[in-house]
Design goal:
About 25% of the residues lie in helices and about 30% in strands. The protein contains 7 helices and 14 strands. The N and C termini lie far apart (about 30 Å).
């Protein structure tokens, strides 16, 4: 498995590139918003000889989908996200305007993901867990074989996703983390939507929002 992180836009969103041995890859949360950032993403993918076949959004907030249109215009990818965040993706331009970011309207997903789905870009199995709370359609992507999980804005190093945005729900978020993430092996690496990686074991021990679970 090939795995790489690029950090884009003023919100410092982690964009992940995941590829199998055949070079087919998934781009997760393409957050590039400037010509320079778009060129960085394109140059990196081409330099590694990768072929994007899938674009996956962990949720529909504008800072995570701001590069969707560019990726879809550049490569023949299929797009995937959870239907519960359709209202956010439909209003991505308005979200961006509120926060002062010109945002190109992303194309709507072709694949609607639900809990229990498995995606296989480049023969890598990515298990989908629906964990609402940060947004209604927040998902995480788990690769058991590679002992890693990409958590979007559900779980961070030492924190959790904010729940004060439209559709947020603190109790839902905590319940989902407890039942679907904290049951993973402690050595599972956590790659969040913002900030540095961590591990399930580290968060069980030290995350102040999860103490006592």
């Amino acid at each position: 498995m090939f795995f790489h992180r690029l950090v884009f836009n003023p919100y410092q969103v982690n964009t992940y590139i995941v590829a199998g041995e055949d070079g087919q890859c998934a781009v997760i949360d393409p957050a590039c918003c400037s010509p320079e950032e778009r060129a960085t993403l394109k140059k990196y993918i081409e330099s590694k000889g990768l072929q994007p076949v899938l674009l996956i959004n962990t949720h529909g907030h504008f800072d995570h989908v701001i590069g969707n249109a560019f990726v879809c215009d550049t490569w023949p990818v299929k797009t995937a996200a959870c239907h519960d965040d359709l209202f956010l993706m439909e209003n991505a331009q308005k979200q961006g305007e509120i926060f002062g970011f010109p945002t190109e309207q992303p194309p709507l997903p072709e694949i609607w993901l639900k809990d229990g789905d498995i995606l296989t870009p480049g023969n890598i199995k990515l298990h989908i867990y629906h964990i609402p709370g940060h947004s209604p359609g927040s998902i995480v992507l788990h690769s058991p074989e590679n002992k890693l999980v990409m958590t979007g804005d559900v779980l961070f190093n030492g924190s959790i996703g904010r729940t004060d945005l439209p559709g947020g729900n603190y109790d839902q978020l905590i319940e989902g983390i407890e039942k679907k993430l904290l049951v993973l092996p402690p050595e599972t690496m956590v790659y969040p939507g913002h900030g540095p990686e961590t591990s399930i074991g580290q968060e069980m021990m030290h995350n102040p929002f999860l103490n006592g679970l």
